Protein 1
Amino acid sequence: MTMTQQDAAAEAVPASADGEGHLAEHDATVREAHRRAIGDVMLEVDNITLRFGGVKAITDVSFNIREHEIFAIIGPNGAGKTSMLNVINGFYHPQDGTITYKGNVRQRMRPYEVAMGGIARTFQNVALFRGMSTLDNMMAGRLTKMHGAAERAFDKSLADIPVVNFLTYPFFWTADFLMDAFYWGPYQKEEERHRRRVEEIIEFLEIVDIRRTPVGRLPYGLQKRVELGRALAMDPQLLLLDEPMAGMNVEEKEDMSRFIIDVNEEFGTTMALIEHDMGVVMDISDRVVVLNYGRKLGEGTPDVVQKNQDVIDAYLGVSHDRPG
Amino acid sequence: MTAEASTAGEAGARSPLSGLTGKWWFWAAVIVAVFAIVGLDVWGLDEDAENHKAILSFLGDGLVGFLKAVTEPVALFWLKLGFAIETSMTGLLVGVLYSLVALGFVLIYKASGMFNYSQGVMVLFAALTFVGLTEYGIPVILALVMAVGVMILFAIVVEFLILRHLVNQEQIILFMATIGLAFFLEGFGDTIWGSNVKKIPLDLPSGAMDWLTIGDWNVQVQWLDISAAATGAVMVVALAVFFNKTRIGRALRAVADDHQAALSVGINLRTIWIIVWSVAGIVALFAGIVWGAPSGVQFSLSLIALKALPVLLIGGFESIPGAIVAGLIVGFGEKIAEVSWGDSLGGGIENWFAFMLAMVFLVIRPQGLFGEKIIERV
Ligand SMILES: Nc1ncnc2c1ncn2[C@@H]1O[C@H](COP(=O)(O)OP(=O)(O)OP(=O)(O)O)[C@@H](O)[C@H]1O
Ligand SMILES: [Mg+2]
C-alpha cells in the first residue's frame, strides 16, 4: 500500500522534452497511431439517479469509460455534467445506481478514498490552494503518496496483526512525523523522490518560471494549468476535468488541448472531460456522452453524436454560447 | 483620498483615513512629530525656554497639554533605561505565552473556519486533568503524557460528535457549537476534578536573574518568567515548523485554503480536524501549566482566552506569524502602558489596554498584521 506500480511506471516515463507543435501534427490518424490502445472498461456508470430535494439533477444515466480513452461529457448548462463528476469523485452520493471502478462495484465512498483509488479531478471554478506556490500546490497532489520509513516498516511487519497494529501505529506515525519535522535522512529522500516527479510535471506543462509564485497571483489560464498539474501529480489512473478550457482564449485553448492529448499519450491516463467548445470536443475526444436535463441523449464517437438529431435539437433548443 | 480609493475598486468598510493610515511613513511622521514636541517640551524648558514658549503658543496649550500628559510618562520611563529594559523583558516574556494561546485559536480557525470559543476552557480542562492525575500519585511525566492522551481523545470525540455533522454550515453555527462545547467542558472538568484551586506540583524556579546593570539600576528578570517563556517559545517554534515544514502541515494548509480541493487530492478532512484539535489541546495543556504555575489551576485560567482575542485581532485570525508577533506586541505594550500611565489612570490598565490596541489596529489594518489587503469589488 505504500507505492503503487503506477507510481513506479510513471517515474519510468521520461518527462516530455520536446513539446513544440504537437497539436499541428495531431490530425486524427497520426494521433490514433501514437495513442495507447484503448483497453477494457475502467469505470462503469450504471443507472445513476441523483436528486437534490425535488430537483432531479441526474436521471437514470449509464455509460462507461475505457482505459486510455478521452471521454467527453457534453450538454447544455444545467444538464448535470458537473453533478456526474461529483458522483464519480464521491462528493455526491446518488440515490440510485452503481459505479463499478476497475471491476469492483463501489460502495459509498468518501472523496479522499476515491482519490486514493487513483481518480483525480479539476474543478469548473478553479479550486487551488491560493496561498501556496505552484510547487506547493503540486506537492499537495502527492501528499497521499508520501510515506515515511517508519510507516513502511509498519506495513511490512505489524500492519496485519489485529489489536497490535492499532496500538503500535501511533508510535510509527510519530516517528515519521519527527523525521519529517527534522527533515531527517529517510524522510528527506522520500520528499526528494516526490519532488523530482513534480518537477517533471512542471516541465511537461511548461510552468517552470512560475514554480515559486503564489497561485493566487497567476492569471486565470495559468491557474487552470496548475490545477491540471496538481491532478497529474497524483499520477491518476482516471482524470476528471470539469471544463478545463472555460474562459480561455483561442491560444490558451490550443495549449490546453495539446496538454490533454500529450498526457493521454505519454502517461496513458484515462480522461473524462466536460467541455462546451464543440470544436475542441470533436478534436480530442474518442467518445462522447450527451446529457440534457439530467438524462442521457446519446453516446458514441464524436461524428455519430454530432449527427444525432436529439442532440442537435437539444443544443438548438437551449440558448447557448456555442451550439454544436 | 476616499474618492481615489473607490475608483481603484477598493471601497467598503475602510476608515476615511485609510489612505494615510496604511502608510508606514505617515505613522513614522506622527511619532517623530509627537516626540519632537514633547522632547522640546520636556527637555527644552531649561535650555531654551523661548523655543518652548514659541511652540506652546503655536499649537495652543490644550493640544500640547494632552500630548504631554500622554507621552511624557513614556519618555520619562525610557529615561530610566535599566528599569525600562527590565519592564520590556517581562512584557515580552508574557507575550510569548499570549502568542501560544492565540496559536491554538489560529490553528483551528484555519483548518475548519471555526472560532473556537472553548479554547480558554480547554486550557483550564487540560491543566486540571494534568494536576488531577498527579494528585492520584501518578508521576509528573506520566501524568503529562496521559493528559496529552486525554486531549487527543477529546479531539477525537469533538470530531465524532460535532465537527463531522457541521460540514458546510454557517460560521455562526460553528461558533455556537463551540460555545456549547465550552459550557459542557467546564461542567465536565468541574464534575471530575472538583472546583478547588489546585497547585501545580512542579519545582518552579524562583528568584530572579541579575542580568545587567545600567547606571544604578540592576536589571533583573524572574526565573519563572524566563522558564515560562522558554517553554512557550519552544512550543511556538515547534508549531511553526509543524505547519510550514511537515507533510501534515502541508495538508493542513491545503485544507485551510480550499476544503473541496483538499478532498480531491486525497486529504481526509476528518483526520486533519482530529490532528488540529489535538494540537490545539496540547497547546492548551502547556499554556495551562505555565500559566497556572504561579497561582494554581482555577477557573480564572479559562479567561486567558480573553487575552488571546486582542492578539488575534492584531495578528489576524489566520496568520501564524501574525499571532506570534501580535502576542509579543500585546505583552510588551501592556506592560509599558501599565508602568507609564498606571498612576495617572488609576492602574489596572493591563486589563483593557490590549483591547484598545486591537481597536487601533482594526482601524489601521483590518486584515491583521500580515494579512493580505482585503480588496472588495463593488
Ligand atoms: N449541491 C446542489 N444542490 C442543489 N442542486 C444542485 C446541486 N448541484 C447541482 N444542482 C442542480 O443540478 C442540476 C445540474 O447541475 P450541474 O452543475 O451538474 O450542471 P452542469 O451540466 O455542470 O451545468 P454547467 O454547464 O452550467 O456547468 C442543476 O439544476 C443544478 O441546479
Ligand atoms: Mg458544470
Protein 2
Amino acid sequence: MRPLRSGLPLDPLGSVIAILIGVALLAAPFVTYRANRIVSGEGRMLAEALPVLVAAAVFAVAFGAGLAAALIRNPLARLAAALVGLAAIFPAVGLSAVFLTPSGNSFARISPSVGFWLLTLSFALLAADSLTRLRLGPWARLAALATAFGAVALLLLSGAWDGLSILKEYATRSDSFWREARQHLFLALGSLAAACLVGLPLGMLCHRVRALRAGILQALNVIQTIPSIALFGLLMVPLGTLAAASPLAAGLGIRGIGAAPALLALFLYSLLPIVANTVLGLNQVPAVVVDAARGMGLSARQRLVQIEIPLSLPIILAGIRIVLVQNLGLATVAALIGGGGFGTFVFQGIGQSAIDLVLLGAIPTVALSFAAAIILDAATELAKGSA
Amino acid sequence: MIEIEHLTRRYGSTVVVDDVSLRVEEGAIAVVVGTSGAGKSTLLRMINRLVEPSAGRVLIDGQDTRTVPEDELRHRIGYVIQGYGLFPHRTVAENIATVPRLLGWGSKRIAARVNELLDLFQLDPAEFARKFPHQLSGGQQQRVGVARALAARPALLLMDEPFGALDAVIRAKAQEDLLAIQRRLGTTIVLVTHDMNEAFQLGDRIAVMDQARLLQYATPTELLTRPAEDFVERLVGTVERPFRLLSLTGVQAALEPGGAEGEPIALSDNLQNALSQLVWSGRESLPVADPNGVIVGRISVGGILAHGRPPA
Amino acid sequence: MSAFSILTRGLALFMLAVFIFAPQLFAFAFEPLTANNAPAIYNQGSLLSLTLSHLRIVVGATLASTVVAVALGIFVTRPAGLDFLPLSRSLVNVGQTFPPIAVLAIAVPLVGFGEKPTFIALFLYGLLPIFENTLSGLTQVSPLTLEAAKGMGMSPRQRLFQIELPLALPVILTGIRLSVIISLGTATIGSTVAAKGLGEVIIAGLQSNNVAFILQGGLVVALLAVLIHDGLSVAERAVARRLGRPADETT
Ligand SMILES: Nc1ncnc2c1ncn2[C@@H]1O[C@H](COP(=O)(O)OP(=O)(O)O)[C@@H](O)[C@H]1O
Ligand SMILES: [Mg+2]
C-alpha cells in the first residue's frame, strides 16, 4: 500500500514530463531556420515560428497537457492529453514551415528543432506510460500502431509537412527513396527468410542430436560477436574471389561488394537467435506431453507438427522478432559496402553534413524496427494464447 | 516476556488480525495455530514490526516496540521463515554471522560464535562452515536457518512454519532438537504452524486463530478438556483427543504402588507411550522404573484410561 | 574450458598481438589481394594506436553507461522510483529498436564530427542492455531472501549492497558484456564520422578499393571482439562461482 501523501497529489513521472514540456515551450527553439541546405541555422521560438494566435493556441494546449500529466493519474485521461498534445504540435510544425519560408524562396530550409523534439518526446513518454499501464491486449496494441501510422501517413499525404526541409530532401529524391526502401526490406526480410529456412531445421537437428548442439551454437555465437562492418569486409574477399573465378556466380549478381556480402552477413547474424530459440522452444515442451502423445500412437512426425512446434512457437517467434529488429537496423550499414538501403541516405547525409538527409534515412529505419517489434511481440503473445 | 495488547491489522477494509491480546512468559514456547489465511503470519510479523499494527501495541519485557528503531528491534529478535531465506551468495558461516556483523562484533568473537552454533546444531564446522546453501540438504538448511536466527543470542525467537518444508521423519527430529536447544538456552519462542501435532508437541501454550480472531489461548491440556468454541474442538480433533491428553501427562500421574511382570516403563515417559506398551505386550500392568533403574511402582491400563478423559 | 579451446584462444590472442605490433610481418599474406602496387598493410596510421583509441572509447563509454544504467536500475526498483518502472521498461524495449547507426548519425549534427558523436552513441546505446539486466537482476532476487534480510534488521541500504546487488551482479555483468560487444561494433562505424578507431582501416579499404585493408581491418576487429567477449564470459562465470550458484533456496 502506498502511504497517503499530504498536499497536492503530484504524479512523479508526470511532473518530470511537465518540466520537460515547460523547458521545451519556454527555453528551446521550436524550429530551425536556415537560409539554405548546408549553412548552420538559427532557432525560432514558438512565438516567432507561428502566427500569434496559432502559437498561443499550441502553447495553451501543450501547457494544458503538461498540467494534466502532473495532476491526473487516470491512464486513459493521460493518454488523451498526450494525443491532444501531439495533434497540436505535429500540424503546427508544418504550418510553421509555410509561415517562415519567404514566399518564392526555394532555398530556405525549416526543420523541427530541440523544442519540437522535446515536446514530441514528452508526449510520446506520456502516451507510452499510459499505454503500458493500460495493459492493452495484442490486438489493441496492433490497432494503436495502425492508428499511429495512419495518422502520420495522413499528415504526409495531406501535404501539411511539405514545407519541412526533410520532405524537401525527399522531394528531390523520391525515386531513389522508394528504391532504397525496397532494397532495405529486401536485405532485412530476405536474410530473415533464408535464416528461417536454414535455422529452423538446424535448430530441430540440434534438439535431436545433442552432440551437435554445443558446437553449432558456439560457432554461431562467435559470428554474432563480430561487428557488422568487419563481417561485411571479411565476406567481401571470398565472394569477390568467387565472382572472379566463376562466371556463373558473377552472372547471378554475386560480387565482392554490394548486396551479396550484406545479405550473407545478415543471414549469418540471423542464425543464432533462430537456432538457439528453436532449441530452447523444443526443450521446454514438457516431456510428459511428448510422452503422452507417443503413448497415444502419434508418429515422430505427427508429434513434431502437432505438439512440439505449436508449443514452441512463442519462443521461436521471439527469436524471429530479435532477428527482424536486428536486421532492419544492421541493413543500414550495408550502404557502406554498396548494398543500398536507407543507410545510403544516412551515410550521404553524414558526408554532406546534411542532418535532414540523415533523418530521411534514420526515421524510416526506426519506424520500421519499431513496427516490426510491436507486430512480432503481438504475434508472440497471440501464439502463447493459442498454444 | 511478551505482551500483545489489542493488536489489529487492516488492509483496506478487510481486518486480517482482529484485536488479539496474549502474553508469553519468559522462556516459554507459544504456538499459534489456525487454518491458512487466519492471520497467523501477520500477527507474528507485527511483533518484529515487519508489519505495522493498525491498532494495539507489543511490549517486550515491558518496553513498547514502537519506541525502538525498527532495525535495532529486529537485531534483538530472531526470525525464521518457511524456506528459511538463506542468502544464496553467502556461505553457511557468513549466513550465521549476519546479525553479529550488523551489530559490529569483532571477527574473533563472530568466528567463535559461528563454531559454537554449528556444533550446537550438529553441523561439523570443518565441513559445513564454507559450504553454500544450495549444497545443503533441506534439514541442514533448516538448522542453519535457526542457527542464524540465534546468532546474536536473542531473548526472543519468532518462527513462521519453520518445519513446513521438511518431510515427516526429518521434521520430527528437527522438532526434538529445537525443544532441546530451547530448554538449554531458555529462549522465548513464538512459533506459527498449521500442524496440530506440532502445536501439541512444542507448545507450552497454544493460541488458536481463525478468521483474524484469537479464539483461545491456553495450555494444551486446557485446549483439549475445555475448548472455548466448536471450532477449537474440531481443530484439536475429536478422535485424537484422548491420546493427545495422555501424551501430555507423565507416568507419575498414574503411578500405583506395587510391582508387576514385564519390561519396565520409564518414569519420565508419558501415558500415551505407556498405554501403547501395555497394549503391545498384552498385559494389564507393567512395572515403572526411575532413571536409576529402581522399580518405583507399577502402571495399569485402568489407571491410565482415567487420565484420557476430561475431569468430571 | 577444454585444453583445446584454451589453446586456440591463446593462439588467437598471440597472433592478434603480433599483428597489431608488427603488421609488416604479415605483408606477404595480404600482397596477393592488392592491385596496382597498392600497399598491402595499412599505412595511414599505426594499428597499435588505432586499437588503443578504439578500446579507449569503448571502455570509457561502457564505464559511463554502467554507472548511469546501474544507478537508474537501482532507482526504479526502490519505493521512490517505482512510478518510473513500467515506463522505463517500455523505453528500453523501444530504445533497442533504434539501430546504433541511427543514434550515431543523429548525434553528428548535434555535436559535430569526431569522437564526441561516437562516444554519445556508444554511451546511449550501451545503457540499454545494462539497464535491462540490472532490472532483471534486481527484480529476480527471491522475495524470501529479502524477507529474511529485512527480518534480521538489515536497513534498505544494507539490503541493497549486501544482498540485492551481489545477487544481481552476474546478470549485470552479462549486460555489460552485451554492451561492450555492441559498442565495439558501433565504434567501428564511428570511423565514418571521423572517430579514431579500427573502422578506419576498413573504410580506407572501401574508399581506395583495397581488399587487403578491408580484410586486415575486419580480421583485427573480429578477433578483438571475439576475444573480449570470451574474456568477459570467463570473468562472469568466475564471479557467479565465487558468489555461490544463485539457486532456489526452497527444496
Ligand atoms: N500485504 C497484504 N495486503 C493485503 N492482504 C494481505 C497482506 N498480507 C496478508 N494479507 C491477507 O491477510 C490474510 C492473513 O494472512 P496471513 O497472516 O499470511 O495468514 P496465515 O499466515 O495465517 O496463513 C490473508 O487473507 C492474506 O491474503
Ligand atoms: Mg502464513
